[in-house]
Amino acid sequence: MTLPRLDLSDVAFVGDSLDRPECVMTTRSGDLFVPNKRGGVSVIRADGGTDHVFANEPPEGFLPNGIALLPDRSFLIANLGPTGGVYHLAQDGTLTPRLLKLNGKPLEPTNFVGIDRQSRVWVTVSTRLIPRERSMRRGYADGYIILIDERGARVVAEDIGFTNEAIVDPSGQWLYVNETIARCTSRFPIGQDGSLGRKEIFAQYGASTFPDGFAFDAEGGVWIVSVVSNRVIRATPDGKQDLILEDADPDVTEAAEAAFQNDTYNRSHLDAGGKRTLGNLSGIAFGGEDLRTVYLGSLFGSRIARFRSPIAGAEPVHWKF
Predict the structure, then answer these.
(1) How is residue 147 annotated by DSSP?
(2) CA distances from 265 to 160, 269, 296 (A)
(3) Between the CA of residue 310 and those of 14, 233, 286, what are the distances in Å?
(4) 30, 103, 112, 117: most buried by Cβ count inside 10 Å?
(5) Distance (Å, rounded) from C-alpha 83 to C-alpha 72?
(6) How many structural domains is the chain composed of?
(7) Is 92 helix (H, G, I), strand (E, B) or coil?
């Protein structure tokens, strides 16, 4: 099935007063949850209004990036700020450290945190280099994945090309991960003890596609969003890729690609997509009553973009929370 390509006239927006809504959590109630740069989480209610839950005493430079919604509607937050780590944020604003060190060493700026149906927590660190921009070059891969379960916290995968979102698939058998600088979606088989088997490439992307967030659909497809080029792409197990949506300046994407190829790629190239209407896409989720509304998070947006999909999404782990 070839999906139709959309344009910006097919996109609407929801929410207001958002600040860096990097990823999106959807629920069957219609409420949406996104991180907020000001130190917490914003809630876009089903009636269209927006509420905010801000941390009362966040650490200096606290920067919510990936978030996980818990059954009581509290949150786990990956801190992309200089002190890194994973925190728990209660609805009253109480912020509690969940994981700040591993093997006695402080975590670097932390990209993503997610939960699976076994209540395990998956955490990603894009790179051990600080500042992170030093790792944004071809062939460099020092990102890693942490698993937190009843045995504690431990590294379960390393040598990843800028680890971004990592999500257990609907079958529970695979952990998928976007490698932004390696420009691919990879996956690992999950063992009974949570260990990960040998990595395999699910999808390799081409010029100017730098995958950040992703979501599963009900037919086995993976929908990724790309920073810089503001692309939405659907990849399938047979290797097919459909470009669903794009909001890019060709001169900007060509310059970013040239810089990537000659190893001069830097933060300015990564942020360039923020000047477009879609605000540098970084997150994606299926929602709506029929799971056919696609919501898009971004690094520079103040609203959430949305459009309708001919294919339903797979129900996320937090759908009924």
Answers:
(1) E
(2) 18, 6, 25
(3) 20, 14, 12
(4) 112
(5) 27
(6) 1
(7) coil
Q: Apex CA 76: angle with CA 215 and CA 128, to 5°?
A: 80
User: Residue 272 and residue 106: Cα distance in Å, rounded?
Assistant: 31
- Residue 33 and residue 50: Cα distance in Å, rounded? 10
> Residues 6 or more apart from 283 whose CB is under 8 A from it?
21, 22, 23, 24, 34, 165, 212, 213, 225, 296, 297, 298
Token pair 């995958």 is at which residue?
211
Provide CB contacts within 8 A for 173, sequence distance 6+: 189, 190
pTM over 0.85: yes
123 is in which domain, residue-wise? 8-308
CB 44 within 8 A of CB 302: no
Cβ(17)–Cβ(3) under 8 Å? no
DSSP string, 272-287: GGGGSTT-SEEEEEEE
Determine contact, residues 180/164, Cβ cutoff 8 Å: yes
Q: Which residue in 120, 130, 73, 69 sits closest to 99, CA to CA?
A: 120
183 falls within a domain: yes
Per-residue pLDDT tens for 95-152? 999 999 999 999 999 999 999 999 999 999 999 999 999 999 999 999 999 999 999 9
CA distance between the termini of the chain: 32
The CATH number linked to 85 is 2.120.10.30
**Nearest alpha-carbon partner for 110 in 76, 70, 151:** 76
Instruction: With respect to residue 321, please indicate whether it lies within any of the assigned structural domains.
Output: no
Checking if the pLDDT of 94 tops 90, the result is: yes
Name the β-bridge partners of 145: 124, 157
Residue 317 lies in a domain: no
- Domain-embedded: residue 320: no
Cα–Cα distance measured from residue 245 to residue 10, given in angstroms and rounded to the nearest whole number:
9
